[in-house]
Amino acid sequence: MSFPPLNGLRAFEAAARGGSYVAAARELHVSPSAISRLVKLLEARLGVQLFHRRANGLILTEAGDAYVAELTAAFQRIAAATARLSERGRRTLVVGAGPTLAMRWLIPRLPGFHALNGDIDVQLSTQIAGADPMRPGWHAAIRLGDGRWPGLQADYLFTADLFPVCAPALAAGLKTPADLAHTPLLQAANAESDWRLWLKVAGVQADVPLTRAQSFDYPAFALQAALDGLGVAMARAPFVVDDLKAGRLIRPFDLAVPQERGWWLIHRPEIAADPALAAFRDWLINAAGVSRSAA
Question: Sign of torsion, CA 73 76 82 84?
Fold first, then answer.
């Protein structure tokens, strides 16, 4: 026996799953009468009745019930094979990045990268505390440093300029850095030196007690607390560029203290020509340039 028409098989399988010609027609984007005709032609071809037609719907015959089970499994295998074939052309790029940079800068911009590079999946790894600059499973990483990592290629993204930020309502009461002595301060446990450095340059280090500052595990949490009006947080420039632009956070003082370190995209030289990495690198450097201009 030759292979039955595929359109008839699809119409029957969809009608059996949906319980009606109307449901099958909606799924396959044809008319119910077209589904009915295709099923009748299939029954004629097979010489077997597949449905009992009832006023309130369709009921599978014993033969139809056995047949649809095989067809559904076959269609699922075809769909899975097609998906695997489609995925063969896709690339996965694993990028290491700190939790705060990933959350507050990179992730909001990734939809723009995916819109331009639909065949590249970027997977972020934020488990970088205490890690070597490049873990074995990473293709690239965004790391804070001086740009010198032996054996690795580094592309500059942006500096880690420091400045206080707070919600607009709180900013109204801050005229000079000395006013911070009477304002709740927020800091990250892994970046406690940021406040000390900025206050020293501002000339008020002795006047502002950091012992009473509320501490959080990561800068992202301190910045969220600032957004919620709980106090003044010390920001690193790229973490807050979007919030400053939108007016969710305010810089109450003009003073920004540059650090000697900045963020760099690093990767092994031997994969520099990889098309997926090259596309991500070019996009990331451009996105970082836009952020620098907006800061």
Answer: negative
In whole angstroms, what is the distance from residue 125 CA to residue 98 CA? 8
- Residue 216, beta-bridge partner list: 188
Domains of the chain listed by start with CATH number: 6-87 (1.10.10.10), 91-160+261-294 (3.40.190.10), 162-246 (3.40.190.10)
Could you tell me the two tokens for 9?
């098989």
For the stretch 113-159, pLDDT in tens is 999 998 899 999 988 766 678 888 899 999 999 999 999 999 999 98
* The total number of residues written for the chain in this structure: 295
Is 0.85 topped by the overall pTM? no
User: What amino acid occupies position 268?
Assistant: R
Residue 256 CA to residue 275 CA, distance in Å, equals: 38
Q: Fill in the amino acid letter for 47.
A: G
- Where are the alpha helices (H) located in 117-203, listed in sequence order? 168-171, 193-202
Residue with tokens 């990483």: 141
The angle, 0 to 180 degrees and rounded to 10, between the axes of the packed helices 32-46 and 6-18 is 110
